[in-house]
Amino acid sequence: MAVVIAIDAGTTGVRSVAVDESGTPIEFRYREFPQHFPRPGWVEHDAGEIWQAVEATLGELISALDQPVAAIGITDQRETIVAWDRATGEPRHRALVWQDRRTAARCHELEQEGHLDLVRGTTGLVLDPYFSATKAEWLLGPGGVAADADLALGTIDSWLIWKLTDGEVFATDTTNASRTMLFDIGTLRWSAQLCDLLGVPLTALAEVQPSSGRFGVTAPGCVAGPGIPISGVAGDQQAALFGQACLQPGMTKVTYGTGSFVLMNIGRSCPAPVDGLLTTVAWTLAEGATTYALEGAVFVTGAAVQWLRDGLGIIEDAAQVNELAASVDSSGGLYFVPALVGLGSPWWDPYARGTIVGITRGTGRGELARATLESIAYQARDVVDHMSSTGGQAVTALRADGGASRSDLLMQLQADQLRVPVSRPTVTETTALGAALLAGLAEGVWSSLEEVSGAWRLEREFLPLLDAATADAAHSEWLRALDRSRGWSVAAEGER
């Protein structure tokens, strides 16, 4: 029996997962890589360190398997931009991470110049430093990288495909391209107008291919072995939507990772932009059929738990937040707005900053831990409420995945706030599963979308228990706290 390997290159680490023909992960290996914060609001990764983590996890995984590998799928942190040299295969600069805020003032300038309608209508996105385009412009600026014939500018998937094929393939897929703010999601081509506006040469960008389909094969000397098809690529949130088998319009998922991301399948027609939300490519299959999604992006959720661990030291392991939060009956009126890198959907405020309000003499570690979990549920509710009111389709059920979905307390808080059932699948690492399913679908491991849907299995459903009036009152207080965080850091564009 063959397996499909998924490389899940996330924001803080790389997970390589082997998935069998039933859609069940059977082995995985994980490796964190360093985070670099050269200045406040700046977040960088070393692409070489990401590749080292990929090689390490792939090598360990292959050593643990005794089955042949039918295909490799790749899913990745989106919007992070890498500049590398095609002649040497080496990065020319640290990667600028999706969380990086250094181009906030530039985005404001572009909006003041009247370019927002062009960006919204072409890309489905908003003018925010979250996306790759202004990061690429910054990299090409004074003291940055040269825009010569050897320059490659790509998202993490492009970097990994390049390394796995030893420079034979420079490609990305439609989902990752749709997050760059340089891609026309209607024509599914790079926008020459936006590239010209931001000074990004089209020649430095990757070829755009379907999310499910063969990109190339691994090179001789690859740690996974030579000649393995690389046949599925998608940004992490689109991969999770596919892995959650949200294959019909209206089906919705939330992924709790470093941030939280709510995506709703809206079918094969690209709609007009929706205020406060993103329109994105969900996936493109090998025959060319493209599905679109509405998305709400919350920047800091799991990262807030990491801050409790690494910044405050009140927990030693991220999983301890659940036990600590459950040690108290309530947060005691404490609200934590984790706008540590600004606010995403539906607020889009890069100048917001983290806020804790309602502290009393009775506030302790337990209350802060519970307020952190509550903030995750509140932020998802903000997105779902907005999606239902402006997107024209109510969310009647939600599928949850990602690391924090393992918390029964969080899942109950989420169901109570949304007033809809929240379903947790048996496989909660659905980003990797989605990449594996896209790759396996292209190579015939799964023959149809019906077989892909059959890989999804329910572990537990959480139903609302809190009465609506109490839930709404708590959410209203959350919105008061959130308002305190907005527009806090109105800073000039960062210097190099």
What do these coordinates show?
- The protein contains 15 helices and 23 strands.
- With 496 residues, it is of the alpha+beta class.
- The chain has 2 domains: 3-243, ATPase, nucleotide binding domain (Nucleotidyltransferase, domain 5); 298-485, Nucleotidyltransferase, domain 5.
- The strands form 7 sheets. It has a 7-stranded mixed beta sheet with strand order 17-18-16-15-21-22-23. It has a 6-stranded mixed beta sheet with strand order 3-2-1-5-14-13, with helices on both faces. The protein has a two-stranded antiparallel ribbon with strand order 4-7.
- The longest helix has 26 residues, at 365-390.
- The chain starts with a strand and ends in an 11-residue tail after the last helix.
- Residues 491-496 have low confidence and may be disordered.
In summary, what is this structure?
By secondary structure, the protein is an alpha+beta fold. It folds into 2 domains: 3-243, ATPase, nucleotide binding domain (Nucleotidyltransferase, domain 5), CATH 3.30.420.40; 298-485, 2-Layer Sandwich (Nucleotidyltransferase, domain 5).
What is the third-level CATH name, the topology of the largest domain?
Answer: Nucleotidyltransferase, domain 5
Mean pLDDT: 92
Multimerization state: single chain
Major β-sheet profile: 7 strands, mixed
Provide the gyration radius in Å: 21 Å
Strand order of the largest sheet: 17-18-16-15-21-22-23
Residue windows where pLDDT falls under 50 for at least 5 positions = 491-496
**General shape:** globular
Strand fraction equals 15-25%
Q: How much helix is in the residues?
A: 25-40%
By secondary-structure content and strand pairing, the structural class works out as alpha+beta
- Based on the structure given, which CATH architecture of the largest domain is correct? 2-Layer Sandwich
Euclidean distance between termini CA atoms:
53 Å
